[in-house]
Amino acid sequence: MKPSLVLKMGQQLTMTPQLQQAIRLLQLSTLDLQQEIQEALDSNPMLERQEEGEDFDNADPLADNVELASTPAQEIPTVDTSYDEPATNMESLEQGEWNESIPNELPVDTAWEDVYQTSASSLPSNDDDDWDFTSRTSTGESLQSHLLWQLNLVPMSDTDKLIAVTLIDCINNQGYLEESIDEIVASFDPELDIEADEVEAVLHRLQHFEPAGVAARDLRECLLLQLRQLPADTEWLEQAKRLAGDYLELLASRDYSQLMRRMKLKEEELRDVIALIQSLNPRPGSQIEASEPEYVVPDVIVRKHNDRWLVELNQEAMPRLRVNPQYAGFVRRADSSADNTFMRNQLQEARWFIKSLQSRNETLMKVATQIVEHQRGFLEYGDEAMKPLVLHDIAEAVGMHESTISRVTTQKFMHTPRGIYELKYFFSSHVSTSEGGECSSTAIRAIIKKLVAAENAKKPLSDSKIAGLLEAQGIQVARRTVAKYRESLGIAPSSERKRLV
Fold first, then answer.
1. CA 142, CA 290: separation in Å to the nearest integer?
2. Smallest Cα–Cα separation from 483: which of 457, 462, 498, 469?
3. What are the tens digits of pLDDT across the range 83-109?
4. Which residues contact 78 (CB under 8 A, 6 or more apart)?
5. Domain spanning 430-496: which superfamily?
6. What pTM was estimated for this model as a whole?
7. Do 223 and 280 form a contact (C-beta atoms < 8 A)?
8. Which intervals hold domain RNA polymerase sigma factor 54 DNA-binding (predicted)?
9. pLDDT tens digits, one per residue of 395-417
10. pLDDT for 414-450, tens place per residue?
11. Domain extents in the chain
């Protein structure tokens, strides 16, 4: 075959940098978007944040036909920094405010506090014994640091303190000792000649630390440690110690008849003993949290006004940006210098960034509006009125691809009168009903939760019984599907839900 030139015409979709930026901003959560905006503000001098209370510039910063060089540099208004002398007599100010005049010169080695009164009266002095810098500035405290702090208050020999530090390092976040005594003894240097009895003695001292039940080797020991620290006159204390020490397996299997027979207790008495044990904390280390709480910032706010559901963006979570008109006025169209080229590129990036943010907000509003339109029943009556909804339904309504809807609904939250929900929460599969209709899986979960809440605690409903009750309501669902929905709700099986009433 001879090589030849062929001219063809065709169309193809190209991912431009602007489109890539818009897609990336679209899938960011609110917190990630705020961080992205802050990075853009720090790196691009053409971008500025619209502060609250300022009049927003109505001129379109995205228009290409805006004359950037219309404001010469010499005509930029300057800020008048002069001010009039206040008419207030400084000598008549109240006590606690300045009543001195500022001298022109100060003596050498003069401190500010020697001449002027400080307004930061809330700051503590160095002589304040109650001031604890660590407790007021630290973000959190771990369980290990809390135990080490208590260890420093206990008189111990150097060897015992070494053993105690090693034991504290072996305690997990739940408060349990993960390593056995033999493994801890083997970890020490043989020259120290540390025996298992010494480690056991130090462990017993650590088990008296706060929180109660810490450094236990299993659940039985954890409960017994907490029971031993209760006052001696606590009602049913001895029976609770016996139950936790000898019959914990029967309590875990909900075999109440065996417990009553072996402990020789009546049903009401056994109920009180179990209530005392249930008041204990099986994970004592969880009382001390070192992590900071994570807050959810809603992207969309839904409220009802005059019998209509209104959808609006959370303006506090969406900072308003604009192109700095002063810096934009420095750009010259005919200038090809390096400085002017840099400013022109920064201006173009600022325009693209603002346009991508506007596109993100518009897409988010379209999707949220359609979700509210489909799920009016949920907003009015709750989970049981949730309708089946898939990504294709919203994509068809707004004229977008399903992948775009998936990006919009990921890590985006809606604030409703019923609470804050992720947008994906409103999407669910459907189950057929006996009348030929459809029921949302979210509504089925709500019904299952309602049935379990109203069941007899002595005879909890099995999955087969729940499936039968759902079928009586016209919802055709299999037993294994009920088990899957029950597990997703965090509801234990019927054998573990049995209680004494």
1. 5
2. 462
3. 344 443 434 434 444 444 555 555 655
4. none
5. Homeodomain-like (1.10.10.60)
6. 0.61
7. yes
8. 341-499
9. 999 998 898 889 888 889 999 99
10. 999 999 999 999 988 777 776 667 788 888 888 988 8
11. 141-291, 300-426, 430-496
